[in-house]
Specification:
28% of the residues lie in helices and 18% in strands. By secondary structure, it is α/β, with parallel strands linked by helices. The longest helix has 16 residues, at 172-187. The radius of gyration is 21 Å and the shape is globular.
């Protein structure tokens, strides 16, 4: 099994951590981290906002040689240096196979990647980078269309792809299309590490699924995740959930005054 992986696992070098009470080491997902084993095909990291999943994914990407704001390993721009120092304190164990392709997508800074592509292409003197993304400016497409162009045109297979909340700009139908294309790339020898909130994406079969909890990262079955349970309960009976969510808040004693 190890021979099929580009990235085998992640280990936190705990002896080098300066202070577990300081960000990002104070995050439970980091504070209690020892070893995180990657699936040879797809690994998901899920959790609430602020739980540390994107911080961890960023560290994995930077430690693997990618630009902190995203792109391939050839991108070296820096719009704003905001990434944490976590990458300096982790070690990624690599398999003997080397990926022929790779990419780090972070939804929040994909605009910056698109801008950098246009800047580089404006210099002329060679093949245009945008041609690897389908030929149309990413700024001239919707966020969802530009991500699908990235997935269909730029990802070539036999690669390591690290995706941070790729569903951010995708409709449910597009998420299904993305899931199908991820599967095609897995069949072409690729490995994915994905941070997501999407119950659609995390349904990918046989993936490793880690949840950021108050006691650290925990392996979970898809059907046991809050993401699945909340979405399932809402879709099965939206009225019941809406009745609870939209119920009038009780007042302290006096009734609300009538409107005239």
């Amino acid at each position: 099994m190890l021979s099929t992986k580009f990235a085998i696992d992640l280990r936190l070098r705990r002896d080098t951590v300066p202070d577990f009470d300081r960000y990002p080491f104070s995050l439970p997902a980091i504070r209690h981290l020892d070893t995180l084993e990657f699936h040879p095909a797809v690994t998901f990291i899920v959790g609430e906002n602020g739980s540390g999943k994107s911080t961890l994914l960023e560290a994995i990407a930077v430690s693997s040689g990618f630009n902190a704001e995203g792109g391939s390993k050839n991108f070296r721009f820096d719009t704003r240096a905001s990434h944490s120092v976590l990458h300096e304190h982790i070690r990624i164990a690599k398999g003997f196979r080397r990926p022929r392709d790779g990419y780090f997508l972070r939804a929040e800074s994909f605009f910056n990647v698109a801008t950098e592509i246009e800047r580089l292409d404006s210099g002329g003197g060679g093949a245009r980078i945008i041609d690897s993304y389908g030929g149309q400016s990413l700024h001239e497409q919707s966020h969802g269309e530009s991500f699908m162009a990235l997935l269909r045109e730029r990802f070539r297979g036999n690669g390591l792809y690290i995706l941070d909340e790729p569903e951010a700009a995708l409709s449910p139908q597009r998420q299904l299309a993305a899931l199908a294309h991820i599967h095609s790339l897995v069949q072409a020898g690729s490995q994915f590490i994905i941070a997501t909130h999407s119950p659609i994406l995390m349904a990918y079969p046989d993936a490793h699924l880690y949840v950021c909890t108050a006691t650290g990262l925990e392996r979970s079955d898809y059907y046991d995740t809050e993401h699945y349970k909340v979405m399932h309960d809402f879709v099965v009976n939206p009225k019941r959930m809406l009745d609870v969510l939209l119920a009038p808040e009780p007042h302290d004693g006096a009734a609300a005054p009538r409107r005239r």
